[in-house]
Amino acid sequence: MADVRVTCINKQPRNDPHEGITHLGGATWRWTRQEVINSIEAKTNTFFTLVGGNRAEVGVVNGANGKYLRTYADGKWNDNLLALPECSNA
Questions:
Q1: How confident is the model over 4-19, as pLDDT tens digits?
Q2: pTM for the complete prediction?
Q3: Class of residue 56 by CB neighbours under 10 A (exposed 0-12, middle 13-18, buried 19+)
Q4: Is 90 inside a domain boundary?
Q5: pLDDT tens, 49-90?
Q6: Is residue 64 part of a domain?
Q7: How many domains does the chain have?
């Protein structure tokens, strides 16, 4: 199992009211949200963010519209993923 740092995301177009994350990425990788969810649930990888020296684990949450990803740090769920920069399309 790899412990993978997420450094960027891609979101649905801004005119979408849900502004959902479509892809997550790092220095050498970019996966769809569903690929990351599948990997977490299969326990093949763990994912985290590191912002200002603070680590937050990425977890799967069951929402009203299906599964989505959130970060968890200091005993609470938060939205650190949405604060990450956009991944390049390259």
A1: 999 999 988 766 555 6
A2: 0.87
A3: buried
A4: no
A5: 998 888 999 999 998 888 999 999 888 888 889 889 999 865
A6: yes
A7: 1
